[in-house]
Design goal:
By secondary structure, the protein is of the alpha+beta class. It has 2 domains: 3-113, Phosphorylase Kinase, domain 1; 129-314, Aminoglycoside phosphotransferase (APH), C-terminal lobe (Aminoglycoside 3'-phosphotransferase, Chain: A, domain 2). It contains 10 helices and 9 strands. It has helices at residues 3-13, 67-87, 129-145, 167-171, 176-190, 229-239, 242-247, 249-263, 269-293, 302-314; strands at 17-26, 32-40, 46-53, 98-104, 107-113, 196-198, 207-209, 215-217, 224-226. Strand 2 (32-40) and strand 3 (46-53) form a beta hairpin. The radius of gyration is 20 Å and the shape is globular. The N and C termini lie far apart (51 Å).
Length: 315
């Protein structure tokens, strides 16, 4: 971190010094890092800083070193800064407060609340039902906050895998039936009557947990318009086995919609009916991306194949 960006942190926090910087993680494909910055003589002991820097050499872990991918990542960081500037304060779902955003040459600094200090210090690799339910409640709160909102400055279509941004993955997809159905699946999702903002990358790794079961979400690079089922299907696929996905499907949907209806200004049965019918469509949409992007991925399983086959039959 250069001296200018370090001075921004001191100025916006009133700290007298940065005591130390602790790496939380590197950003995907070498586009920067996320750090915990410990401060001296500030109102808070630490903040989280997302420091975006354009890589000199693009180094995608799966070999997708393309201009399409580069432009998608560049836009994702512009979307995230716009999200924090304009929209994040309207979320009833818990997320980090944005302290400041600074752009300097080809670097971006997002200075955010440290959720560890705020009571969300735990990261999970496996969830029990109570924790899954808490994440479904978070998604419902998030979606309820933005029903009918226009995603100006965000992704018109949220998520990182939607068809318009993934032509290369579609072109090499060897499942011909799914390949032919992909535009219809995409159209069915995008033409839904009821839309909200989707998180766009609501995997288990992007949730922080408190000791009393409370949940907060992070990482808003792919937030944009769409059907809330895209987040729900993606989240469930990130933390359950194929057997659990099948066994718990009805319970998952019932729990999510109970939370959603509770958080809407008034009950909306038409929205629930439409979105319930799109849960499996959203699942098939991500499955299409995954089979083109990483054909040997662990998430490609018999449940996903069965769901996708049913969706194609019903198109």
């Amino acid at each position: 971190m250069n001296e200018y960006l370090q001075s921004v942190i001191l100025q916006c926090t009133g700290a007298s010094a940065v005591l130390k910087k602790e790496l939380i993680q590197n950003l995907w494909s070498g586009y920067g890092k996320i750090m915990r910055v410990h401060l001296d003589n500030a109102n808070v002991g630490s903040l989280v800083v997302k420091h975006v820097q354009l890589p000199v050499n693009k180094n995608h872990p799966r070999g997708w070193n393309t201009d399409i991918g580069h432009q998608r990542k560049l836009k994702s960081y512009k979307v995230e800064t716009e999200w924090y500037r304009t929209y994040s304060k309207n979320s009833t779902a818990r997320l980090p407060k944005c302290i400041a955003i600074e752009t300097y040459d080809d670097e971006v600094l997002m200075i955010l609340e440290d959720l560890n200090l705020a009571g969300y210090p735990l990261r999970k690799q496996d969830l029990d039902w109570k924790e899954i339910n808490s994440c479904l409640e978070w998604l419902a709160q998030f979606h309820a906050s933005y029903i009918g909102a226009t995603p100006d400055g965000l992704w018109d279509i949220g998520t990182y895998w939607h068809l318009d941004t993934r032509p290369q993955e579609l072109s090499i997809l060897d499942d011909q039936r799914l390949k032919e159905a992909a535009p219809l699946i995409n159209e069915k999702l995008n033409n839904c009557t009821y839309k909200t903002f989707v998180h766009g990358d609501a995997k288990l790794a992007n949730f922080c947990f408190g000791k009393e079961g409370q949940v907060a979400g992070v990482d808003f690079q792919y937030v944009g318009g769409g059907c809330g089922m895209k987040d729900v299907a993606y989240f469930i696929g990130s933390c359950l086995t194929e057997q659990e996905c099948e066994h718990l499907e009805a319970q998952i949907l019932d729990s999510y919609f109970e939370h959603l209806q509770h958080n809407l200004k008034e009950k909306n049965e038409a929205l629930e009916k439409e979105w319930r019918s799109l849960y499996r469509v959203a699942w098939a949409d991500f499955h299409r991306f995954l089979k083109g992007w990483s054909p040997g991925h662990w998430k490609i399983n018999s449940y996903s194949e069965h769901i996708t086959s049913q969706v194609i039959n019903n198109l």
